[in-house]
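G., the chain you wanted modeled:
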Amino acid sequence: MIQFLDVSEENTIAARVVGKIETEDVEKAAKEIDRRLEEDGKVNMYIELDHFEGYEPKAFLEELKLTTEHFGDFRKMAIVSQEEWLNTLAEITDKISPQLEARYYRLEERPQALRWLEE
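Predicted structure as tokens:
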């Protein structure tokens, strides 16, 4: 399930994902991303994954499609989770996309992640 969060930073899309990502979650995220890009141009992403259980198969493919379509539309991406393997994902994302800066934060580091996005 995906839930969008209110944050003080105007050009930041913040979402919290709990459990497994389903196709409907990706569709909801795509609509929000498109809406915000129309308003703000490039945006930052705050993604909090709590008790992340992966993707349903179709949702994974839709997420890949969404990510490739919008990769150049993000300035910074903060991935916040208790899942340490997501640190590797943030490092890879940071290296393969020079226009996007990505960092991993543990759940207890939420305030630091949001401050970094505001810089």
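Residues 2-118 form a domain with the Transcription Regulator spoIIAA fold (CATH 3.30.750).

Shout if anything looks off.
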